[in-house]
From TrEMBL, chains A, B, C, D:
Annotated binding of dUMP, by residue: Q109, W110, I111, R112, E120, Y121, S122, A123, R124, R196, R223
Role: Catalyzes the reductive methylation of 2'-deoxyuridine-5'-monophosphate (dUMP) to 2'-deoxythymidine-5'-monophosphate (dTMP) while utilizing 5,10-methylenetetrahydrofolate (mTHF) as the methyl donor, and NADPH and FADH(2) as the reductant.
Record-annotated active site: R223
Annotated EC: 2.1.1.148
GO biological process, one term: dTTP biosynthetic process
HAMAP family: ThyX
Cofactor requirements of the protein: FAD
Molecular function GO labels: flavin adenine dinucleotide binding; NADPH binding; thymidylate synthase (FAD) activity; thymidylate synthase activity
Keywords: FAD, Flavoprotein, Methyltransferase, NADP, Nucleotide biosynthesis, Transferase
Name the record gives this protein: Flavin-dependent thymidylate synthase
Keyword Disulfide bond among record annotations: no
Family, similarity comment: Belongs to the thymidylate synthase ThyX family.
Length: 302, 302, 302, 302
């Protein structure tokens, strides 16, 4: 990540001036405010604002006049109960606003999560910076031979070098041309809304993204998952750190009942029961397809 | 509104303990936090939490690193521009959480606004209080003879007395029976989730309601409007006061471009142009239906 | 359910006039169109319109020009894969519109599912019918002693008789008064929007409810579940029949991977692995709370 | 638009086989089904499915058992009333599913409309076609000197030729490199999810997009507007034709009360009243900013 001195100064200034509030304060979150967590080569995640904490989840679940929290133990128990039984609305009572810098092809996946508020840097109005995501050597991988939408083995050094040359060269050339088109010697220059179409999908964009905790956890469950593309997963991972500091009870419940949990199908549960009763269950007598059986075995292995 | 001493003590305690935060603070909103604005005979609106202020709208619109605001004049101009040109996403960057006590029939209208987060007091889990909305004498009105879904003239004293007697009597009797059913001498009592079906729609319920500023203003435009039912309009009016103190620039723009604005149809605009050119335009030569013409005349009269 | 001869005639007329279309047709759904499935004493569910079928799910998942389906076996496999791996968007490509008649307290739970379109019969504009939900004898149960928001044992005959007397008596009296208030001898009568506040929550209302298949299945998972209140569960059960006929592959996948599936927490999965390895796992050495352990044992028992 | 013979054959096959249905049928929409309306150089809009028609809007507004429509005149009047008074839910009762082929930079604007269902062609799973949007000569324009996010004057021939050379050259080179990276002589080839990052934003993608009529009209109001970027406006214009044939009454009301309507601010309405009373109103005595006054004058001029 390349943070300019001006940008760093703006962040420092924001962090230097605490003010008084009567609102709920999460100490774990205050320490994150405005600081940038680096992601990929030029990206970041920054917490701009937040609302609520673990206690606010309990307060809403209890619809209370006062703080609505009881003993710490009671509160954690309530949060775990709510998570386990899919009571999602109390988690919607917390909200976070992030400033994210990310490659366009990551932004295109991210925006599919519709229950959020977004303000993106406008390439109709402004000129995009010359910043492109160029994968680290170890992130380069071949198309998976077993999973049609994933990565398989790493590339050879030679192949990797060839790929990196292409990505760097095309990015540089396309950006040079973008600049040439909008500058237009002696005239207004091509409209920005048109010129941007020449920029490849690894250029960085930025947005403000605001979301409630329930929908954020849904995003994290899908995007911090091993099946998610690496380039969005690292953003999800960065946000996981933030959430763990912000709402520690909710985070622990989320880890236990969502991230680390396993959903077994009706057929899988039936097999489990037979296995626990001492029966020998095989792919053949399981009633599952070959693919489901493989997934079942993998889940039991962990 | 009947606030118990215990509830008032909880509110006082919350207001007594300011804490430090690095977040944006709206002074106008801090003064509202936790205090209850009375609405109808037992209802209220209380601000529980908020995120953002006028500056946060500008900051998001500019996707900035720092505060993102410029001069006060620039910020107000930007907010007015955004409102006038239907740029809704920057307004979504502010959020508010309210605790509302309201009659069930008002809650049923309110909940139709879907883009919000809600936790309602559960009548499956808890016992509802004996609190019913009984309209003030001057709120009682006859069915409108011109508008199929509104009120017309006030009731005579005799008629009003009869209505109030009915409402009070039925509320008291239904609640007595509710209590009898759930108490059940010598046994567990009828399940609460069943017993509640005996309660009329003027019983009070409570909820936590969280919404972003854009969707809140949409709610206010519809519900603080003269066509809205009086009993929801008074809640909307109370929230209008809160918003005016929270985000004064956005509120002023909202008043000018939404609440006080008038949308003229294509036909109406054509007539306006003819009128300004000195032509005599009448219902007959206007190209509008009788009803549209009446609405047009009313809009011009104000 | 009391369907008037006029209503039945309208339904018969709609079913009598097939027309030609180029759209996808689900034969299983055509047979349901307009017919009312009775629910509770006066309620029903009627299919008014639908869009898509199993093939449409595959077509969207493949973003195809033509029908987008391959062999029947391939299609079923794809649908099961999508369901298993939480690919929700293809299921959003099917849509259904229902006409539902239901008690108000059920409507209040139902409306919490926000991702749907609703038009409810307006009690500001129209007069509600004299129809109330009076539970069948066997549906009356005491408050559960173990679950704070559920039902426990059935009532004694005497207790049940007392409850039914109350419910019938209060419904009748409240409705009589509603009629008296709105009729108002010699004047316009109390505005309907006010008079309705006297009606208890077991009065029936009606609405058109339109929802996509993904969100419908989410609704069914929560509301056809054993923890849902009986009075909404019977509506969910009725809709389950409809979905099974409409999109049989999706329905089977939904049964296997959602309704019949079990989600085990991280701790539960760890215990499962130990048990399958032959270890004796007890509540004490499980790392779970007492409540979680009970839920774990229940899940394994089935 | 380049439609392959295979694709055309698939479309012809779909249009050749009408089936019987009991559902509402819109004749105006049946004629559009599956046929592609060309947009830009390679894009299109195709209607894949629809639900409802003008009568369905009235039926839902009336929550009726039968067809719910009365005389044609009544129905049109009701639809105009609903539109004029912002009753949006009846319009949500119609739904349409489109297959759209569009450049990525257009898709990025389009997706910001969140209340819709989308399945996009996956560039993780599949290989994108070599198809890029290259603007027609007359669509090339300079950055506007008055509007920061729009186009101004056309380019000179020389400038236009230079721009087209750049766009064509970079698209071809980037695509060549994309192919080289994923083919990878003698190995699996770079993962598709990585290789796609080299493709510029004028490459075409495709999706299935499903939306209700209310939200579609909101999309059209913003995107068929003169301020929208030309490249998305032509898609909105194509969809306008479809809607006009599908629901002619709703379309006419939409034209009169939304597209052709003008919203005047509180200040503008006050000025209008003064002008109609014969007063001379100028920028100076109007109480508006210079910018608002210009917009007011423009609205009155038409």
């Amino acid at each position: 990540m390349t943070m300019t001195p001006e940008q760093q100064a703006e962040i420092d200034e924001q962090r230097a001036a605490p003010r008084e509030t009567l609102r709920t304060v999460s100490e774990g979150m205050e320490k994150h405010l405005y600081s940038a967590i680096p992601v990929l080569d030029h990206g970041f995640v920054r917490v701009i604002d937040y609302m609520g904490d673990d206690a606010a989840i309990c307060q809403a679940a209890r619809v209370s006049y006062g703080k609505g929290t009881k003993s710490v133990q009671n509160d954690e128990g309530l949060i775990r109960y709510l998570m386990r039984h899919w009571h999602s609305t109390p988690f919607e009572m917390c909200e976070v606003k992030l400033h994210v810098k990310l490659p366009v092809f990551v932004a295109r996946q991210w925006i599919r999560h519709r229950t959020a508020n977004v303000n993106e840097y406008s390439a109709r109005y402004s000129i995009l910076d010359r910043e492109f995501y160029i994968p680290a050597r170890e992130a380069l991988a071949a198309q998976s031979s077993v999973n049609n939408q994933g990565r398989g083995e790493g590339l050879t050094d030679e192949e990797a070098a060839r790929v990196l040359d292409i990505l760097k060269g095309d990015a540089a050339r396309c950006y040079d041309h973008y600049e040439e088109m909008i500058s237009g010697d002696g005239q207004a220059g091509l409209a920005r809304e048109l010129a941007r179409m020449n920029l490849p999908a690894n250029i960085y964009t930025q947005w403000y993204w605001k979301v409630d905790l329930h929908n954020l956890m849904h995003f994290l469950r899908l995007r911090a998952d091993a099946h998610a593309q690496y380039e969005i997963r690292v953003y999800a991972d960065a946000i996981c750190q933030v959430v763990a500091d912000w709402v520690p009870f909710a985070w622990k419940a989320f880890e236990d009942y969502r991230m680390g949990a396993v959903t077994f199908s009706a057929q899988m549960v039936a097999c489990l029961r037979r296995m626990l009763a001492g029966e020998e269950v095989t792919a053949e007598n399981s009633g599952m397809s070959a693919r489901e059986w493989r997934e079942f075995e993998a889940a039991l292995r962990g």
